[in-house]
Design brief:
single chain; 4-stranded antiparallel beta sheet
Length: about 250
């Protein structure tokens, strides 16, 4: 019987910083990361110690000092001590982005600020996080884009999916034939297309893999592997740590 795959965290040298021991793990945000043991979710600090013990059915990352969590069948928001600042009263709740978080009440989505004030009334069938002052929402049978006042932006277009293959730290992922590489803002390849999958740079490193079923590794801005570790699954570096799925 094979070893169980668990989530842990590596540092930028590729060494394990927090032992793989979680069934689920999120990126660090504001110094904390959501992790799951069996069916309970809590929060650890960068030493791997619990700041908030696993106790929630659902949970998201801390932003603006608050994290969305689910108890019973409702979502609310807690502070870093695990105390509810906004009581569980929402059918669904997102993380704060650009100072707003989507929430669902009575089947409709709107947006609140960290004080719990309604910033955009609940009038959408679905809603996504804000990014750079713009969010995508579903209304009247179609997706539209709104600004932070809730006003539609009718002429907004996402050219070449910039939110997915967007520029990050001066480089962008670009596909040529069936391979991916990285281009500068002038559109010139800085790292040749040789990867089967490639993700944007975060904290100076980017996730890549070669081969359809290959394991994930990390490259620097010169396209070199700073460490040899390869992982079944991994995520970008945030606040100096990256979550990885592996065995000890």
């Amino acid at each position: 019987m094979g070893k169980e795959l668990l989530w842990g965290y590596i540092g930028k040298t590729g060494e394990i910083e927090i032992k793989p021991s979680f069934h689920e793990a999120r990126n660090f945000s504001e110094g904390l990361a959501m992790v799951r043991i069996d069916y309970q979710r809590g929060y650890i600090d960068k030493t791997g110690n619990y700041l908030i013990e696993p106790q929630f059915i659902g949970a998201g990352s801390f932003r603006c000092g608050l994290a969305p969590v689910m108890t019973d069948d409702k979502w609310g928001y807690i502070d870093r001590e695990g105390k509810f600042i906004l009581p569980p009263s929402f059918g669904k709740a997102g993380e704060f982005h650009d100072g707003l978080a989507f929430v669902e009440t009575s089947g409709k989505y709107g947006y609140i600020d960290p004080g719990g004030n309604l910033a955009i009334p609940p009038e959408f069938e679905a809603a996504e996080d804000f990014k750079d002052g713009i969010a995508r929402v579903y209304k009247n049978g179609g997706w539209i884009f709104i600004d932070k006042t809730g006003t539609p932006i009718p002429d907004f277009q996402r050219k070449d999916e910039p939110w997915i293959l967007h520029y990050s730290e001066g480089l962008a992922v670009k596909q040529m034939d069936d391979k991916y590489g990285y281009v500068s803002e002038e559109g010139e390849f800085v790292i040749k297309p040789k990867f089967s999958q490639a993700e944007p740079f975060h904290d100076g490193l980017a996730r890549v893999r070669t081969g359809r079923n290959g394991k994930w590794g990390f490259i620097d801005r010169e396209g070199k592997y700073p460490f040899s570790g390869k992982f079944n699954q991994s995520d970008d570096f945030y606040e100096g740590l990256a979550r990885v799925l592996t065995t000890l």
